[in-house]
Amino acid sequence: MPGLEPDNISPLVLKETSLPLGNYSESCAFCTIAHAFPPSPNLSSPTPSPNGDPVIFPQAHIIVSTDGVLAFLDIQPLTRGHVLVCPRSHVERVTDMTPTESCRVGAWLPIIARAVMKTAGVMDFNVVQNNGIHAAQVVPHVHYHIIPRPSNEEREQLIHKQGARWLISKYGDGVRTDLDDEEGAVVAGEIRGNIFSELQEMERDGNGRIERKLLSSL
């Protein structure tokens, strides 16, 4: 969303309680991303912190970067809009998360999921979370996959519109390809724009204002 200024961002982004950023592992790919992308109120274009931070390769396409939560595109997506959501602090398993870390991630999951589905143009999706190498966890840092899952009709439309590389089979058998950086930048921008719309909608809803105030204190 070009021209989006921090003053216009919902307090849900701006007013997360400032707590220590927690554990950091130099060998963890997600901690490297967290280090390079500090908490930012600007959903339109989160920028890496300046000199001295690790170089990110492949390029990270950030969706949300707050005190406690980081969301970014999967570098080998199963579908267009495949996003990872994780706590900023380094924790390896769900069982290692504190109540505060769990609440923060849980508060953002439905908001990001709605934005991803709008971007992907589908209704159904998976939220997947793996713990340990025998459960298919590749990066030892808690993360949730949000994966759009098109219907047969949506699937045919995606193949026609986006190419056969987005061909999706049953869960677990999807085709994974490397994310193109140019496409990633476009998709990430669309998702951030839809998140901003979600936050605005929450603000317009009377009940949403109460909920948003509660979430902002997590």
Kindly describe this structure.
It is a single chain. The radius of gyration is 17 Å and the shape is globular. The longest helix is centred in the C-terminal third of the chain and has 24 residues, at 181-204. With 218 residues, the protein is α+β, with helices and mostly antiparallel strands. It is built from 6 helices and 5 strands; from the N terminus they run ααβββαββααα. It is 37% helix and 11% strand. The chain has a 5-stranded antiparallel β-sheet with strand order 1-2-3-5-4. The relative contact order is 0.18. The chain has helices spanning 11-14, 29-36, 99-120, 152-162, 181-204, 206-216, and strands at residues 62-65, 69-73, 83-87, 124-128, 144-149. The two termini are 26 Å apart.
Could you give a quick summary of the protein structure above?
The protein has 218 residues and is of the alpha+beta class. The chain has six helices and five strands, in the order H-H-E-E-E-H-E-E-H-H-H. The protein has a five-stranded antiparallel beta sheet.
Output the helix-strand order.
HHEEEHEEHHH
SS-derived structural category = alpha+beta
Q: So what's the oligomer here?
A: single chain
List low-confidence stretches: 1-21
* DSSP summary: helix tally: 6
Count all strands and give the number. 5
Strand content: 5-15%
Helix content: 25-40%
Shape assignment: globular
- Please give the largest β-sheet: 5 strands, antiparallel
On the 0 to 100 scale, the average pLDDT is 78
Q: Looking across the biggest beta sheet, what order are the strands in?
A: 1-2-3-5-4
Q: Give Rg in angstroms.
A: 17 Å
End-to-end Cα distance, whole Å, is: 26 Å
